[in-house]
Specification:
Layout: H1 2-13, H2 17-22, H3 29-34, E1 51-56, E2 63-71, E3 76-81, E4 86-99, E5 108-112, E6 116-119, E7 125-142, E8 147-148, H4 155-160
Antiparallel strand pairs: 1-2, 2-7, 3-7, 3-8, 4-5, 4-6, 4-7
Pfam families: Cupin_7
Protein name: Cupin domain-containing protein
Organism: Sphingomonas rustica
Length: about 160
């Protein structure tokens, strides 16, 4: 199933897209997860427990980017938006994903490995994992950002003492 998920990702970002940003790059799933973890920057949930890796490009800059996120078991990401259109592929585990300004299990759908979904620009969405956690590859055209629907749900606000 992993090979199928990676193939779906390549279809989603288009032929040769990675070559435009970073030159030629080929990564197996194990090689992708061996890349260094980067700080939770633009386009991430900013939850410290989530591991983020740059697969291609730079989400903070202009141009195509792809990040890999490894989300631990039983993690919830509150409703938020991004300014860019994004596509995503679940490569491992089960990712529960929903659209709307209020995160609820009833409004989410379980997406197993190989699943594809979109995050339209400025469309509120949320996600959570069950006991198996999940790994997701997300592609967008930066610069990107993350804006929580309710500012109090932003993990960055809790780290800096801001409301």
């Amino acid at each position: 199933m992993r090979a199928g998920a990676v193939a779906l990702l390549l279809v989603a970002i288009g032929p040769g897209a990675a070559a435009v940003q970073d030159g030629e790059r080929r990564l197996t799933p194990d090689e992708a997860m061996a890349l260094p973890v980067v700080p939770a920057g633009p386009g991430t949930s900013r939850l410290g427990a989530i591991e983020t890796r740059l697969l291609s490009g730079d989400p903070a800059a202009g141009g195509l980017y792809t990040i890999a996120i490894r989300v631990p078991p039983d993690t919830r990401i509150a409703a938020h938006t991004h300014r860019d259109d994004r596509t995503a592929v679940v490569v491992q585990g089960v990712w529960h994903f929903g659209y709307g300004t209020t995160a609820s299990t009833a409004a989410s759908r379980a997406l197993p490995a190989g699943s594809f979904y979109t995050e339209p620009a400025d469309a509120a969405h949320f996600a959570w994992t069950g006991p198996e956690g999940a790994t997701v590859y997300i592609t967008g055209h930066g610069p990107t950002d993350t804006r929580y629907v309710e500012a109090g749900n932003d993990p960055a606000a809790h780290r800096t003492g801001k409301p």
